[in-house]
Amino acid sequence: MILQDRLPAVLSPVLGTGVAIENLRALTGGASRSTWAFDAVTNDGRRSLILRIGPPDDVHAGMELEARVQAAAAAAGAPVPPILLATNSPAALGNPFLICGEIKGETIVRRIERQLQKGDGTGRARLLRQCAQALAAIHRADADDPGLAREDQLTAWRERLDAMGDTTATFEWGFRWLAAHRTPPSPPVLVHGDYRMGNLIVDGSDLAAVLDWELVHIGEAYEDLAWFCIRAWRFGAPASRGAGGLGSIESFLQAYEEASGTTVDRVAFHWWLVLATLRWGVICRHQAERHLSGQVRSVELATIGRRVCETEWDLLDLLDGMAPPGDDARRAAAGGGAGQSDHGDDAGRVAAREPAQTASGDPLHGRPTAAELVAAVAEFLERDVREATSGQVNFHARVAANALRTVERELLDGGDPDVRAALAGLGFADEAGLAAAIRAGELDGRTSPDVTACLRTLVRHRLAVAHPGYDSEKEPVP
Question: Which of 4, 183, 295, 296 is the most buried if burial means most Cβ atoms within 10 Å?
Answer without folding.
Answer: 183
